[in-house]
Design brief:
It is built from 52 helices and 34 strands. With 1439 residues, the chain is α+β, with helices and mostly antiparallel strands. The two termini are 70 Å apart.
Amino acid sequence: MENEPDYENVEQRLCAESTEEELNKSFSLEASLSKFSYIDLDKELELKNDLIDDKEFDIPQVDTPPTLESILNETDDEEESFVLEDPTLLNIDTIDSHSYDTSSVASSDSGDRTNLKRKKKLPDSFSLHGSVMRHSLLKGISAQIVSAADKVDAGLPTAIAVSSLIAVGTSHGLALIFDQNQALRLCLGNTSVGGQYGAISALSINNDCSRLLCGFAKGQITMWDLASGKLLRSITDAHPPGTAILHIKFTDDPTLAICNDSGGSVFELTFKRVMGVRTCESRCLFSGSKGEVCCIEPLHSKPELKDHPITQFSLLAMASLTKILVIGLKPSLKVWMTFPYGRMDPSSVPLLAWHFVAVHNYVNPMLAFCRGDVVHFLLVKRDESGAIHVTKQKHLHLYYDLINFTWINSRTVVLLDSVEKLHVIDRQTQEELETVEISEVQLVYNSSHFKSLATGGNVSQALALVGEKACYQSISSYGGQIFYLGTKSVYVMMLRSWRERVDHLLKQDCLTEALALAWSFHEGKAKAVVGLSGDASKRKAIVADRMVEILFHYADRALKKCPDQGKIQVMEQHFQDMVPVIVDYCLLLQRKDLLFSQMYDKLSENSVAKGVFLECLEPYILSDKLVGMTPQVMKDLIVHFQDKKLMENVEALIVHMDITSLDIQQVVLMCWENRLYDAMIYVYNRGMNEFISPMEKLFRVISPPLNAGRTLTGFERLAEDTFSVLDEQVVMGNKLLVYISCCLAGRAYPLGDIPEDLVPVVKNQVFEFLIRLHSVEASPEEEIYPYVRTLLHFDTREFLNVLALTFEDFKNDKQAVEYQQRIVDILLKVMVENSDFTPSQVGCLFTFLARQLAKPDNTLFVNRTLFDQVLEFLCSPDDDSRHSERQQVLLELLQAGGIVQFEEGRLIRMAEKAEFYQICEFMYEREHQYDKIIDCYLRDPLREEEVFNYIHNILSIPGHSAEEKQSVWQKAMDHIEELVSLKPCKAAELVATHFSEQIETVIKKLQNQVLLFKFLRSLLDPREGIHVNQESLQVSPSVTEQFIELLCQFDPNQVIETLQVLECYRLEETIQITQKYQLDEVTAYLLEKKGDVHGAFLIMLKRLQSKLQQITHQDEKAKEDLSLKDVEDTMVQTIALCQRNSHNLNQQQREALWFPLLEAMMAPQKLPASAAPHLHPEALRSLTMQVLNSMAAFIALPSILQRILQDPVYGKGKLGEIQGLILGMLDTFNYEQTLLETTTSLLNQDLHWSLCNLRASVTRGLNPKQDYCSICLQQYKRRQEMADEIIVFSCGHLYHSFCLQNKECTMETEGQTRWTCYKCSSSNKVGKLSENSSEIKKGKTAPLQVKMSPPCHPSKGDPAVKKAASEPVLDPQQIQAFDQLCRLYRGSSRLALLTELSQNRSSDSYRPFSGSQSGPAFNSIFQNENFQLQLIPPPVTED
């Protein structure tokens, strides 16, 4: 702990007001109304502070005789106040809430659930709110508590109660009473009484501080007079004996108190005085047998709220272990609310706290209750009828468990968690303002009283568990202060005043945080504010004055802590961190006088600080937040940026500044020299109201290169060294155009607006300037209208756009009309009489004119012959350059309305001559001559492919007549060869979409065979990707066969693939076509499709034999690899043919396919080496083995072996080649034999295991759980005289059959009675009993009875219920055993696994070349996610 030293501006008076500005409205206090102002609450809080202010009341010392008091006081030299007013006046250790770095004892419990929650990172509220709470040790009281324990055996402190006095109870039954100066005034009781009554477990002081109630650990209650120290009452029969007093509380009525004992009961104590005799009557409000109450809290009202309508009810809140109750004690006992807890930790402590708060300008009591990590707020109101209503407010979710909740004012609450850390919370925003570790307090816990150890520990386990963290009697609040009772000390905690919070940050050298906190006070956004009163303007003025003081201190500190030596960057960084803070807050406080006088002068002492200061002003100037700087600062600002070569920044600053106080000529010169054209224009406009001079200056720069014939906006560039010059001139030209546009539109450049009175004047000046015949200081060679000419040369289109926008704004007065006509005449004179302008520029002019002439309110006049001249100029140039540019210009002119200026026939003729096909299209479109537009597309190489979309749109989009569509289609048919050669797929799609019935007509028109082939391929082959439904396409087989014949000619390699996707063709005719072109593979494919497998095989065999003959007779130079590749490909195709068809043939037909193939492959190998010198025996032998392996799946191996051995070559003993085949046959035989043996063994084991289980299930006896019927509850033996049968189920329940029949637990099935367990079925009616296998396993519905009946399966889908009468019926034992067997053995049977394995193997063996993937393996039990391979039988489970 550390003492807080004096600081010059610490507030001398601590006021516990809450600065809630909205509550400053004045509401009169009326007895019948619940309207109270927050000011009343704040005054009340202030009053309570004043009551314990030692300086204001200055209570003198009382002469104390040499009693216990003098003994306790002999070690103290001076008295100390426990109300911390000014740390400089009192010797009190003020604890810095952020100086703790040790955790409390509780936080070291790693097993504590709350300790795990604390790992969540706490928000850094210190930087936002500063230190909110002040934590102080009451040294006088603490020392005297320790002294009393040592010298008079007072024992350790156990309870504390605070009013204008402080009462501390001890473990030896003494109550020590201290006054406001921490002096011990009374010592109530003695140790002998303490030995009889036990420790003081609860204390309470009444409102006027005249009476003290003490509750004891052994259940007694005493009342003391605090003025005289006399014992007034000793109450021993107020509650059941043997229970400790947990709480005792005075109500607002001094004759009424409430106590709560360790039995969980609550009693009302009424104090009376009859005939001078003091009595106490006790009434039980809540019995502990209905739920143990462990916390009570009566509603206390302040003196100024004593007439509040709620107070007449004398409300009491009680918290039991399961719920909250709010009851009214007056006028009669009534329960107003109960609120049950949710699920929570049983060791968490229930907490209650009342406070009056203002909601919607009405003050009403609010109850906070919590248990665990959630705080609920309940607002209590009284309606006009006199009834009380409780409404739930927004609750607070925390990440720690609470053991104490205290209101410090209506907006701020202080929470203590289970690891002894305080959390200051703003109630409305639920923001955590500060956390304080208070483990050093060594807080006293009331666990022993909750466990009632003094009376033998006769309490419930639940209450004892709550008592582990109970500290109800160790924390007391009064007047905005919270007192914490430790084992050897008393601490007080209160809110710091706003000024103290700021100063606390200053002492820690956190100046930036202090300014931020002060600004939050200034703006009214701070939380837990104390010490600011008055209206908003007054409060702001007080805070602003304090902030100015801090800013001066901040500036001095910035200069003082600047590094004296080192790199300049270090100094700059230092000031860049600090100077912007000064600028920000001066501007926020609207103290430009301070900023530009004292602050600027102070920072100007350091050149680096001055520069950073000036740079900080830039963003404020650019955002127009800073206007009205002093001339000196403006001048220094411009010079600073000029010195740093930041001219762009200078320009941006100038156009946002009021430059009337500067030397305008000097600024203009600087702008011109540094090419700051925006700034120059701004200075002329704002400083001198001069708008023409900037234009003249800019024209002088951009005119010379334009007059020399160079273009600035085009892409023509000269040498590299002229790049920067030209770019600069382009920028200037663009600025000039924008500037002229702004002037003509009434806007200021570069931002803002021209004053309204100057707008017409500026417009007239600009127009007069533009239409000047000659410029100032013109040379004799200058052409007329230089300004218009320059702008037209610079950017014709943009200049005309500027004029068009200006014409839009003109009003139709006489002067405006004259200006428009004058400008138009000048434009025509400049451009038409000059050959310097490009077609685009001329076209832009006439497009502009056409738009103006097309307006309904047009007043311009333009000679029509000028348009004819333009047409001649665009359509009949001297050369063919810029063809597309000229066409586009003319098209824009026509679209802008210029078509009315031309004779249409002449226009079309000239456009066709000039090959302006877009112009022709535009004209034909107007005349609806759509067929001619097709010619325009086909002749235009840039747009010829768009003809298909055009034709499609005309034919499909509604709005065109049938004649127009017919003419378009006829034109398309006339040009069909052109269309097909252009894009065959688009042409085919067009025909198929619109005229599918005329396909044969189109075919006849296509004389070129290649074009016809492309067209048919696009039309019929779906792989070409045309978007047509092939089914709706009506194509005759002859057309398809014609396409196949063309395909055989032009692309024979694609015939088979195409035939696979084509549908409409005849097999016989197609076979004739393929035979004509000798395409053997295709013919074989078609024969196979026809069903002539043998014919297809003979063709392929013949082709294979010819290939083999080629390699046996080829010469040395032939390409051997290529020939072998042909043989292999042909053989693979032949094998595939045989495989595809073998499983549909019988054995003889298979041999007719495979053996000739084998013979063909073996024939070349029989030739002598001299007859085939270039034969490759190894390659042929490998191919032969491939044939043998493939045919083994379809031909029996003995047949193959016999055929090979009958061969004369191999029959003579050459068996080496077939050794591998024979070994393979033996391996296959061994594998199949092993598989068969394993299958037989598994089946035998399954059968044996199933029979064993069946026998065990049938012979197993049943053991009932009880010896009485579960329905009538009578022992089964007593009713045996009724000859009633006893039924026992496998679940252990036992019934009389008569009782089961009465409960309708029987079902007749196929002549047999089936029974159901009543208890199991009735408790599971929601579920489907018989369908749930787990329920069956538990014996819920599968009964085994003494009288054996089949078990009942009520499921409608049960096949056992639906068996036909003709089927054999199992007896009950068999059904029971079979059910149990099915339960134990789930999953796929082994027979199913083996069947699938055999299918997979057999299918794999004869489908090595098949592309089909559909089969058993792809709908497999192995792919089932529930499949489990059971390697051993499951064990028999006992029910």
